[in-house]
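Hey,
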Amino acid sequence: MNARLLRYLLMPARPAALMLVAVLTLGVAFAGSVGTLGLPMLLVLAGSLGMYGYILLEHVAHGAHEPPVLALEMLNPVSEHRPLLQLLIIAAVWLAIRVLSAHIGALPTAALEALALAALPACIAVLAIADHFWQAINPLALWQVMRALGASYLLIVGVALLLGFGFAALAGSGALASWELYGLGIYAWLALFALIGGALFEHRASLGLEAIHAPERLAQRLQVQLDAERDRFVDGLFAQARGGNPRGAWETIEARLEAEQQRNDAYEWLHSRLARHEDQRLASRLAQAYIHRLLGHDNGRVVELARERLGLDAGFHPRTHAETLRVGDLMRLAGQRGGAEAMLASFERDAGTADISAAVGQIPRVDAPPTDVV
């Protein structure tokens, strides 16, 4: 999990985010070169970086594989106020610790500062995905995020410390030009936000996060589309049958089964939908074909299918004499003597064969030992 999580650090290297890194780097470098006159521009650029960081985090948390392309409406401080709220939360916590430090001493103050720093990624995460901003200052909500992320949260804190100390070391060494430091700092900021978003996405199940682009959501949408298509297909079948062309409806079913390579799941979904209609003839004929396919391979499903059919169509029986006898014996072995007798009697009525009457009489009672094994 943690190894997979580290790939989110490369998210800002994608073209959309990398272009933003380049533009902000040039802007910060220019603002820094003009002294105090560049301060307003510097504040705008810092705000833009903060807003894009939260937008990137949210996109990644919802399963996006590419960073969002920056648009002007994203940089509206009225609609995107999370960076300002985060700044206010940090300032409030810092002031509270400063007030407490006069009463609790240096060591407890350092412990509180370390705890606040460790909780900062959780605060950022909650502020990014929560419905209400006040949840970002709820210790219980922060703890739930930390506990849900587990080792991934420790990785985030470790990466944040590594990036912070590494940047400070590079800045102090003078090994890089100022614009290079700006670019590296901006990239590190976005990478950390992408990492937090990636951790939320990877642990979405334990967090209860319904990610928009999650594989399960995509599968759910595809399943809804497939169900709708199947319902339309079955409605078309019954329209054919009602129009006086039941043979054409059955040929359409055969063509669909062939298109789906005669898979068992194709029989299953077709039967479940055909069985919902008042006219059970198509469902019973499909069940006959399915039982023919299943006999000897999945006898348990054969018994279930025969029982289901008899509950909806009292005159149901398999295709042939031999199959009817075999399914009847399977039902008898499963303790469904009444169903077996009804099915065999139905076949007798349809086929008019005398030996079926004898077969019905030969079915032993449930409490008698079986005479044969299928």
